[in-house]
Structure formats: C-alpha cells, structure tokens
Amino acid sequence: MAKEIKKAKDAVKNKAKKKEIDMTNSGNKGRRRVSFVYRGKPGEAVFLAGDFNAWDTAKKPMFDKDNNGIYTCMCLLRPGQYEYKFFVNGTWFLDSCCPNINVNQFGSHNNFIEVK
Predict the structure, then answer these.
(1) How many domains does the chain have?
(2) What is the pTM (predicted TM-score) of this model?
(3) Long-range Cβ contact pairs of 41-47 (< 8 A, separation 24 or more)
C-alpha cells in the first residue's frame, strides 16, 4: 500500500511539474492549455488564483472528479511567466509539486510557471 501511495504521489508530482502544457492548441490565438493539479482531501473547496485571473479566489474552481482528493483545472494562457497559488477552504497554499517559487510584494511566496 505504501508503495502505491508513493507511486501515485510521484505521478502527481511529475504531472504537476510539467503542467501539461499542450503546444498543439491552435484555436486560441497563441494560448496554451495548462493543467494544474492540487492533491488534498475529498470534499475540499479548492480554487486556483494567480496573476492570470487577478488573484480572484472564486473565479477558477478546481474539481475532484473521482472524489479521491486530486483536484484539477485547465487554463488557456499566452506564453509568459505566471504566478499562482491554491486557495483551499479559505487558506492559501503553495503547489508542493512545483519547485518554482518567487517572493511577492508582500513578502510571502508564490509558485510560478513559464508557458512557452
């Protein structure tokens, strides 16, 4: 069981690091499809917020389709660097699977991704 959990965590970590940038999306004027993954507990209220949506904590909900605590959402983003965090049950969380971290203007930390 422990090996299965570690294997699942590693798979989620690798998937989140890559952010599944889909370079084949041609119908959105240069935008790329970017998937985000948050691993938590079933039944949580999880949202994605970042500079791409003016840090709106209600605009981009994440969904746990299999009720297993793995929340996903997709964004269409133009090439560039974007900062983000997860907003879970009213509390900010970094993406533990993303090693890219910036210090923001308030002295706290945000993850960032580079979309090419």
Answers:
(1) 1
(2) 0.74
(3) 41/69, 42/67, 42/68, 42/69, 44/69, 44/71, 44/88, 44/89, 45/88, 45/89, 45/90, 46/71, 46/86, 46/87, 46/88, 47/86, 47/87, 47/88
pLDDT tens, position by position, 5-45 = 444 444 444 444 443 334 344 456 899 999 999 999 999 99
Cβ count within 10 A of residue 29: 7
**b (16+ CB within 10 A) / e for 46-80:** bbbbbebbebeeeebebebeeeeebbbbebbbeee
Domain that holds residue 97: 2-115
User: Which residues neighbour 58 within 8 Å (Cβ) at sequence distance 6 or greater?
Assistant: 47
CATH of the domain at 98: 2.60.40.10
